[in-house]
From TrEMBL:
<feature type="region of interest" description="Disordered">
    <location>
        <begin position="58"/>
        <end position="80"/>
    </location>
</feature>
<feature type="compositionally biased region" description="Acidic residues">
    <location>
        <begin position="68"/>
        <end position="80"/>
    </location>
</feature>
<protein>
    <recommendedName>
        <fullName>DUF4177 domain-containing protein</fullName>
    </recommendedName>
</protein>
Amino acid sequence: MCAYTGEWEYHCLRPRREETKKEASDPTTELNRLGSDGWELAETIAYTGGGTKYLVFKRPATSGPADGENDSESEGDERR
């Protein structure tokens, strides 16, 4: 296990949209996966005019490579 370095790493998730593109689909499965990997919700970024565009997560950075660093399961999955 890598030691905490006093810094954060961030992960952005764009909630998937339902077929109508008006409503986000339920992100519970993805949120549970991120939580089990040590991510916690830090912020939401909303569209101008309403609606959530991104969910921003953070977790303590480690001295080694991040778990799943090259893992990009969902279409809107973006690592920063």
